[in-house]
């Protein structure tokens, strides 16, 4: 490909998946990447995010992990408690994670994660162009991918490209277009769940010693109860306490598919957690009126494929995942890293659609079953954390109690050693390189 023009790569969406895909492709040697984002800027809601070692490993290779880690908080333990009493059900030390997987389990601010990947992209500004306030629609797949681009302040026009990556999130237009083309549908699975996301400052918490102790820990705490839980941890050098919840989505019952976020009511939120302990009430009461946001948690049935022609789906567009395993963004970033391997210019011999499709199919082969297994595991973890009174809950709590006397499985799956081995121990880049060799996508370096 030495003398041929560079591949034109279009990326729909500048979320975690789109940003990481742009950076991974630029690092792989692509020089003509455009990211189209309908929002005016990165626009990340104020919220924290767990930064698992499998995510950290990729971001380190892409050169942006240090900046994120400098602002993040390392978690040394997780405590799972009964929401109604604050009694500790189980406690798991996480300090071995770094020794075992090379990276610690950290938690951070979404804007720090996205901003650092974006900064990485800006260092590749000769290769990556960002077009904000630009919405993609009317996607066509052949002979080359094309779409209508509607900039917010000017007339729409059509764009053609060699490769289109649909990183446009859970409400993906690119997914809808692909499924229409294939005469398929992706049935929306009603999770019945919604989430509040809240951030409290140290200043807001400092007058309450019990709450101040929470922000000063290195602990991810989950308070569980029937059909609901709260998970919380300190972020931004312990200046902010990040709280995320999951509860029945009663506030969305009228329009579950039209809108996934709504302004939540503080009094409803306090009612929803009415049977939780007084400390949780004091904590939720610190949230200023008008600052409660609620998200509908949405997933859909597995797709038959993530790839059509020279287009591939990435991240929540193809595997929206409940947050109960803290892996959605990590999996979008794994998608991006694998695309950086399979689409490397040194591996694609020419720009024919068949050649590109073959590379995208290798991406799908490395990613689809793994991401879908984690979608299912996250849902299962939610079911287990949300058990009501009865035999199943008694059994779960016995397994939690056994943790105090020695090792055993952890019912909160993200903290279970075997699950962590499966999630953190998987190096998607090594797997992608292996799959490329098996499929004959051999880079000059491999040969
Ligand atoms: C409560 C909650 C907690 C979570 N906690 C964690 C966690 O701790 N760890 C973790 O790894 N994951 C977590 N996740 C999951 C994670 O947030 C998502 O999986 C991840 O952000 C998905 O990234 P994405 O790039 O695929 O999609 P998005 O972040 O949704 O990005 C899609 C982008 O595409 C843009 N877009 C959409 N349509 C168009 C269009 N037509 N044209 C142009 N642009 C378009 C959107 O504006 C958006 O910027 C959590 C999720 C929730 C809801």
TrEMBL record:
Gene3D superfamilies: FAD/NAD(P)-binding domain. GO terms for molecular function: FAD binding; monooxygenase activity. Pfam families: FAD_binding_3. It comes from the Eukaryota. This is FAD/NAD(P)-binding domain-containing protein. The keyword Oxidoreductase applies. InterPro entries: FAD-bd, FAD-dep_Monooxygenase_BioMet, FAD/NAD-bd_sf. It comes from Polyplosphaeria fusca. Residues 8-377 form the FAD-binding domain. Keywords: FAD, Flavoprotein, Monooxygenase, Oxidoreductase. Belongs to the paxM FAD-dependent monooxygenase family.
